[in-house]
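Researcher: Here's the sequence for the chain we discussed earlier.
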Amino acid sequence: MAETPDARVAVYLDFDNIVISWYDRVHGRNAYGKDRQRISENPNDPEVTDRLRAAMIEVGAIIDYAASFGTLVLTRAYADWSSPVNAEYRSQLVARAVDLVQLFPAAAYAKNGADIRLAVDAVEDMFRLPDLTHVVIVAGDSDYVPLAQRCKRLGRYVIGVGVSGSTAKSLAAACDEFESYDSLPGVVRPVKTAPAAVAAPAEAPSVEPAAPVAETATKPKTAPKRAKAKPVIKAEEPRVEDKVDDQEVATQLLERALRLGHDKADADEWLHSSAVKTHMRRMDPSFSEKALGYRSFSDFLKSRDDIAELEETGHERLVRLREP
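Model: Thanks. This is the structure I predict for it:
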């Protein structure tokens, strides 16, 4: 269904969710929560402006990815557009024919206003537009799991898009296909910056003991106090353990897919690499070789040559499980 030529696509963006998640991805965990008050009170502060600019969302990358599935029938973005953080995107969204749904600042009892409004509109569109074939949900909140499941029960192909590290696993599993925002073409990933080397304190020069002085000598002056350095805001880097876990999970997923593929066919039979990748995406819709740092699925297979044997003949790429 993902490759239907006359596919008609509906896109729903929980814009606050994706903006906050990407801000935290760039500047560190809970960075937006720490900076929220400062952003709302001093949106024109140079440091605030620089941090917001560094975490800008590439709206075009999301829209172009959704358009790869078929004709965009409707595209809606839900947010409080009076907020200075979201106001920066209005011209971009309008230029891409995105409908801006205004959500006024909600009280504490209505904190899930965007989730409820988006879900109600999506389900209504399923019945109002029966020719819709694909639904793209741009969010990372597990609150959208029932919506994804309902769309699938109504016969739609559900694609999820969320920021890596901020998307609930349950939402990715509820979709037919899930893509990390980090791996979309046109998105610049956060660059790791090496921590600045801290200079070791210079050793005090050895001083020979001075001759005794008269009692009338003046007391030596005390050394001036050092001025405290201003704290530098640093982006929190993702833990190495998380990345290692992602690689291990992908390796285990590949091995399971190959074993299941061989169970359906002969044990020594070669499998088409595209079929193996499709099977892996069905088992885990969040799988993406690009998010793991590989340019193609073939490169991903070559990096796992201890369990996968790859054979490339012309345009055909075959793979099978390498037994020990």
